[in-house]
Amino acid sequence: MKPNQIIEALLFASREPIDSKRISKIIRKVSKREDAGDDLISIKPKEVDEVIEKLNKSYGKKKSPYLIQERSTGWQLYTRIEYASYVRELFPEHKPSRLSAPALETLAIIAYRQPITKAAIEAVRGVNVDGVLQSLIERGLAGIAGRSDLPGKPFLYETSRNFLEHFGIKDVDELPNSAELRSVELPKPSSEIETDEQLSLAEVNQESQQETEETEETEETEETEETEETEETEE
Question: pTM of whole model > 0.90?
Fold first, then answer.
């Protein structure tokens, strides 16, 4: 057997994406047990990537209905989009679930500005997002990333691995206009504005205190110098 045949078989049989490291490990393990050729016993992840690239080129030349795509967790074998309507007829009970416009808007905000608080999402959308956010979490498209350092320690939300799989991307950097949209200034929730103002006021107070201390030190130094000069004059 050749590496491309084994890799193709593994991708066909796997229900989940499988990465190059695991593919190479499986091939080495089985090939060593069955005393296969050296090219299989010593295969490395990089070689798996090269084989997959050749397989995709071969599919393209043959106008095959298949293609291999890389996802966040590895490689997976797919049927091309032009065959979707035919394949869908095999599973009439599995209707693709569609996200509502509010859900898509909320998910987009999380995706481009994660990790982000619920208050920050609501500041952008201008409406309460409790229900929509809960729906995205239940669908496995978003989740809790931790807590913010803001007062009250609100939850931070981020997209999930399932989000990447759902939209067919490896990471959020592949989102359209990713760098540009992340740099756009968005409305801030009142709680964060108040916190920023408090921090600014604290900085001003700290600077003012430092200036006062420096002034007092300068005055003390000048008084000391004047006293010393007076004493020298009297002598």
Answer: no
